């Protein structure tokens, strides 16, 4: 993979990025001993001095931790270098700064370097009453008691939320720490990666993974997981993860959980939604209710293409703290939860007739089209956005041939398919063409009405490199012939006119549609929409010419 990153230089990447982060943060200021602190007073809901919850860790996991600085969550965050724990001075300075005389709770992810530096920092800030909540939720590192123990991953933000909300409501330092501990002890996580991330400071991938393989149980720095295996379906991946987390938390019938489906930085929101749907449905099958859900990229590993799953076994108090409002910009404004996963497909009533006489004209057209989805996409890829064939397939794929019924019936059915099933410009434009053809008294009227309407619809003129470059010559020819029905002779004449118009689009630069963004680069490629118009009149070999 040829990766890159937005940066001025490897050396200044982190400081440049942090400067931008703070400039966009409504309640954060940079302290040049190396921490980000709130600008607003560290007070409880009643306006009294509050226990301060602070955290820190290697950078590269944003929005954690800086995005969770705010009222009701963190008082300060100490960012280390990329994937490197913060140093003890940063942490002790932040601790002393944050203390309001009521004590400070450190939320520490369980990594040797983090644990050490927070410990040294506490010793250095001995005048402050500190407590530590060690987050250790990554089940892939379970059974590692002789070593450093479970890693701290996705659950960290739930712990920060619970502890931060407790501090804001006025709890004392012991209670805040106890609640934070309860949140981590009741949480387990597991991550899966389909692709490594790219380190903007070193120019290296975070780990090696062969194409088609996935790393199961991967860490949030790209540490290896339990094993590497062939990429499986989302449903199987989620099942594999839940098979580990559910027994570890002794979850069963009637239990409620907070479910965090977290992107590792290079995963699309749609993929995360899909994974959440799977997780929620599979939890429901096990009798477990998702009381609250968070779906998004909160604890990232630069731009790793992966996802982590965290479940927190909930009780009423933990849920209350999760629900409490916070001004931290990265915490979602509202949480999901307790909703069944229902199918989200569009229902469509096909109006194509299933009986009647075989319709040769429109059967030939659809047959041609069905054999050409890929080559049409190819043309739109060269000069457009590459979805034209897909849009045609959405409308015409799956139609059983031969078509039966009258021209009017079939044209009506095809128009509906285009308008409902196809997307893009083509759905609207070809939907209009077929609607007009179905409605008109004669072929000549239908083609001319359609050309006029499509011109009004999208403003395209002849020569703009659209389907009108084939439709207008065909409409003119039909008018000249006084064409009423699509008999063989008429079709042949219309094909000649339309096909010549379609071929001429090769020399035109697109002025409309998504191809227009390419300007002259769209030249040298036939407009696929114009080609399809010509196929309506048959003729020619089965190719894109
Ligand atoms: P999109 O541009 O939304 O990706 P499609 O790929 O579905 O649209 O369709 C592209 C085709 O639509 C082009 O080949 C062209 O023939 C046609 N087209 C684009 N813009 C217009 C327009 N303004 N009027 C008529 N046809 C158009
Ligand atoms: Mg397109």
UniProtKB/TrEMBL annotation:
Residues 9-331 form the DhaK domain. Residues 356-542 form the DhaL domain. InterPro entries: DhaK_dom (IPR004006), DhaL_dom (IPR004007), DhaL_dom_sf (IPR036117), Dihydroxyacetone_Kinase (IPR050861). One of its GO terms (biological process) is glycerol catabolic process. PROSITE patterns: DHAK (PS51481), DHAL (PS51480). Keywords: ATP-binding, Kinase, Nucleotide-binding, Transferase. GO terms for molecular function: ATP binding; glycerone kinase activity. The keyword Nucleotidyltransferase does not apply. GO terms for cellular component: cytosol. The keyword Transferase applies. This is DAK1 domain protein. It comes from Corynebacterium pseudogenitalium ATCC 33035.
